[in-house]
Structure formats: C-alpha cells, structure tokens
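ok so i was messing around last nite and threw this chain in just to see what happens. nothing serious, just curious
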Amino acid sequence: MIVEGRVVVDLAGGTADDSGSLWGPGTIVNAYSVVKPLVATCLLLLVERGHVGLDDRVTRWWPALGSAGKEDLTVRQLLAHEAGLTLFDDPPTLATLLDWDATVALLEASPPEWPPGTAHAEHVVTYGHLVGEVVRRVDGRSLGGFLRDELAGPWGLDYHVGLSRGLQRRAADMVDPEGTFVAPLARPKEIADPDIVNGAAWRAAEIPAVNGHGTALALARFYAALGAGGTLDGVRLLSSGLVEELTTPQLVAGDRVLGRDVAWGLGVQIDLDEGGFGMGGLGGNLGWWGEEEYAIGYATRRLGDHERVAAIDDVVREIVSRG
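result:
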C-alpha cells in the first residue's frame, strides 16, 4: 500500500509452490485481469507521444480488423471494452490463445456482438490481443516487449507479459486448495486450470488480458503513478490530462459479460459510489487507487473470490480516512 508516494505496507508471505518454497518480495504471480490497465496504458503511451489518436479508427493501423461491422471501431472504444469482440459465446481454444497470430486472425474474421460504441462488456480474454496488436503495428514491438521497455522499466514495475526462463523461476504456482473454485467467465475453461497456468507454455506466451505476472508492490506503484497524475519517482510518462481521460467513465451501463452496471474508463473500472478506480482479477487479485488517495495491490496464488482483498481494502479505507 502506498500513501502520498510512500510505501506504508509491503507484505509478502506464505508459500510459492507445493514444495514449500517461501513467497518473498521477488515472487511474481499470474494475477489475471489485473494486468488489463497496464495493457491499456501501453497504448495510451503511444497516444501521449502523438502516434495514435483516441478517436482515430483502429483500421488506420490494422486494416484487416475493419470487416463484418468493425469498420468504424475507434481506439477509445477499443480501450473502453466497447468493441463487441468478447467471443464469450464462442471462445477461442487454448491452442488459439497461445498463438498470437491465430487469435488475431480470429478477431479479424469475427463480427462484433453489438455495433462498437453502443454497449460494453469486459473483453475477458481478447482485450490484450486487441490492444496489443495495435501497439505492435504502431511501434513494432510485442505488447510484452513494449510494456517491459516503456512502462515497467521507467517506472520500476516488477510486472511482465511473456516470461523468460529466468522470470519463470520466480513465478508462484497457482493452486485451488479446496478443489472447488468455479470461474464461469473463464472461457476457455483452461485459463483457470492450475495445471495449465503453471506450465512453461502459458507463462512464456503473451496473452495480455489474463497472463500478466508481477508483484503486489508493482500494482500499488502503478496506481500511485496514476493517482499522481502520471508521474512516479520523478518520471512522467503520461500527462495529467490523459490520466483524466483514462479515469473518466466512457459509458455507464450494464456490462454484458459481468452482468452488472459498470463504469469503464480507458482500461479501468471506476467506482461511482465509493470513488476510485482499478481492476480486479480472477482468483481474488486487485490493483486500485482509492478516493482517499491511496494505492493498493494484492496478488495471490490461491484461486478464490474477492472476500479477502475486499476486507483488506475496507480496513485500508478506514485507516486512511482517519488520517
């Protein structure tokens, strides 16, 4: 947890695998959708530098996406989960997800589930490929490479998409301790299977919507940077104006995948009741900036619900509000 730019709580504990290896400050873990705002920020860095416009058509860089009703899809709509390409009813196979070009081809051929810009739904497994392919076409680097060089590196974030062998040695194994974890939004279902996500193929692949690996401190630092208007440790990557765009609701409506009202910004969910913005992840993970001006990150290898991190966040809010 970070308050006023200062780390006030940084806890790491438990075991990282079934052999009993201890979880330490350098342990990284697959925190699923928590990575989505970092993915969005990669594209926003290209917006910041004038290479991309938020209201430009995506087909300017990715012509093949402009078929079957996707011709007018904009960068803003893509970032705000309004593209209509969730593929929720007809999800890609695991083999397709592990193959970047195959997933991109599937997205190019798919008609949107609604006219882009008229509704929204979390693009659970496709968001990273949609945003990442634009980054790749504009910049030339993969999403994982761009994140490493242009976001994680300058801001000192221990967060990664596509793990090298060295990074894989630092990764904690996911576990379903009771064997009862159910993830209805996990489509394909293999993305919630510890036997799959603990494997080298999953960790090495770039599936940026759901397989970012990192530390809780990295998440807190990321949100501290956004909360400070785009600056961390004296390094400015985003203007305060673009951070305001990122954290402004683009559409407030029922999310067609989550089944509840959601306010999506440009890659983050916004809490209109209690304030703040951020993103949760399958299994109980969270990265968040609170209205009380604190940043929190929580990452776990235990697949479960969000009750534990919700309780932690309630305590944090109470302490911070007391000053």
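not much to say yet. The chain has a mean pLDDT of 95.
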